[in-house]
TrEMBL record:
This is Acyl-CoA dehydrogenase. Residues 124-219 form the Acyl-CoA oxidase/dehydrogenase middle domain. GO terms for cellular component: cytoplasm. Keywords: FAD, Flavoprotein, Oxidoreductase. GO terms for molecular function: acyl-CoA dehydrogenase activity; flavin adenine dinucleotide binding. CDD domains: ACAD. Residues 233-378 form the Acyl-CoA dehydrogenase/oxidase C-terminal domain. Its cofactor is FAD. GO terms for biological process: fatty acid beta-oxidation using acyl-CoA dehydrogenase. Belongs to the acyl-CoA dehydrogenase family. PANTHER family: DEHYDROGENASE, PUTATIVE (AFU_ORTHOLOGUE AFUA_7G06510)-RELATED, MEDIUM-CHAIN SPECIFIC ACYL-COA DEHYDROGENASE, MITOCHONDRIAL-RELATED. The lineage of its organism: Bacteria, Bacillati, Actinomycetota, Actinomycetes, Kitasatosporales. Residues 10-119 form the Acyl-CoA dehydrogenase/oxidase N-terminal domain.
Length: 388
């Protein structure tokens, strides 16, 4: 077996090439235009769906591709490398699709998975709360029983794509009948449910997907809004969070590759002395370092995705955290270096790199910040004591 196929099989390479071909037909200018017009990348979304890319990880019997997060992360990375990442891939098929496919009732699977797989339905995911932030154990969105119904009360913040999503998968808590303690549970809240209010947050981020603050004011939901088993909430939640981290790593690696490629192109041509600026090691070496760091991050992402797809949730948890950390750091550095390589042009709208400086920070903060990953590795991997 040649070394290259040792790491990535031919079918994955073929998938990469096919997604890259689609992404390159749209490219960065498409996303820039859509964002400027406050529109959405619907054409790209639809075409990616028709090619089977969006639901590649979802079960075949519900219209998906029957593959895994390995394949979905390839889709996101390649679209990102082409300059047109689809953030909602992280949320809709990766988190929500996975949770419903693994833990949903048959009725929930029939109702949601075919639409999530063919891209005609979209689901957002809401866990972050204003007073909990990184400490998700502190969330207070609560679900109480009222007859057969559930009634949800609480607030969420920074939830992406709620305006576009048919429903949001909300992480709430229910009271354990035996212990009285609150335990996490997942609820499907339709976009227009009474008492479910959203307010867009004015972000500096230039992206088609918007973030929202949500208020759930006695939102009444039918019994089947609860996903899966009330007693397996935490397990279900973690089943969705690992794909989220792996996909964020792919998002960051794609963006980093895109920025790096623009910088390399520029450094090859731009000449202000006798040779192109890329011949100066002060320009070339940081770009080479970025390439190495992005490759390493991609390797860790592949490891995390494979562990996850093989059913090793614990092994995948550690690898997914490390991959997300490495990819976010590599992306932020690659984007920063790319902007610098272009000199003044790095800050022009024409070259479109400066806006990535903000976008690259997202992967450092969400879905879990770099410090929380360092905490995880300190405590779980290295066995160091906790300060909180
Ligand atoms: C563009 C964007 C999209 C998002 N989309 C979604 C979404 O769709 N759904 C969703 O649920 N959430 C979403 N989020 C929210 C995101 O997951 C949170 O912003 C993130 O978890 C951090 O929470 P916080 O912003 O409250 O920061 P805080 O928790 O307030 O943290 C602030 C700072 O303190 C540090 N810190 C906190 N605790 C510790 C500690 N114990 N040790 C060391 N440092 C610490 C953090 O690392 C960070 O640097 C999104 C955020 C952004 C920016």
């Amino acid at each position: 077996m040649p070394p290259s196929t040792l790491i990535e099989e031919n079918e994955h390479k073929t998938l990469r090439e096919a997604v890259a071909a689609l992404g390159n037909r749209y490219g960065r200018p498409y996303i820039t235009r859509v964002t400027r017009e406050h529109a959405h990348p619907d054409e790209l979304w639809t075409e990616a769906a028709e090619l089977g890319f969006l639901g590649v990880n979802l079960p075949e019997e519900y219209g998906g591709g029957g593959a895994g997060i390995t394949e979905l992360s390839i889709v996101l990375e390649e679209l990102g490398a082409a300059g047109c990442p689809l953030l909602m891939l992280v949320v809709s098929p990766a988190i929500c699709g996975t949770v419903i496919a693994r833990f949903g009732t048959d009725a929930q699977k029939r109702r949601w998975l075919p639409g999530l797989a063919d891209g005609t339905r979209l689901m957002a995911f809401g866990i972050t709360e204003p007073d909990a932030g990184s400490n998700s154990h502190r969330i207070t969105t609560t679900a109480r029983r009222d007859g057969a119904d559930w009634v949800l009360t609480g607030r969420k913040v920074f939830i992406s794509g709620v305006d576009r999503a048919d429903a949001t998968l909300i992480v709430g808590r229910t009271e354990d009948a035996r212990t009285g303690r609150l335990k996490p549970c997942l609820f499907i809240v339709p976009r227009d449910a009474e008492g479910f209010e959203r307010r867009p947050i004015d972000m500096e981020l230039k992206a088609a997907e918007r973030q929202f603050e949500l208020v759930l004011d006695d939102v009444r939901l039918p019994a089947d809004a609860l996903v899966g088993d009330q007693d397996a909430g935490l397990l279900q939640l973690f089943a969705g969070l690992n794909p989220e981290r792996i996909m964020t790593a792919a998002f960051a690696t794609g963006m980093g590759r895109h920025a790096l490629a623009r910088a390399v192109e520029y450094a090859r041509d731009r000449t202000v002395w006798d040779t192109p600026i890329g011949a100066h090691q002060a320009v070339a070496h940081p770009l080479a370092q970025s390439h190495i760091e992005l490759e390493l991050a991609r390797l860790m992402t592949q490891k995390a995705a494979r562990l996850y797809d093989a059913g090793d949730d614990t092994g995948a948890g550690e690898a997914a955290n490390m991959a997300k950390y490495a990819a976010a750091e590599a992306c932020a550095k690659a984007v920063d270096q790319a902007v610098h390589t272009l000199g003044g042009n790095g800050l022009t709208a024409e070259y479109g790199l400066a806006s990535l400086v903000t976008a690259a920070r997202v992967a450092r903060i969400a879905p879990v910040s770099r410090e929380m990953i360092l905490n995880y590795v300190s405590h779980r991997t290295l066995g160091l004591p906790k300060s909180y």
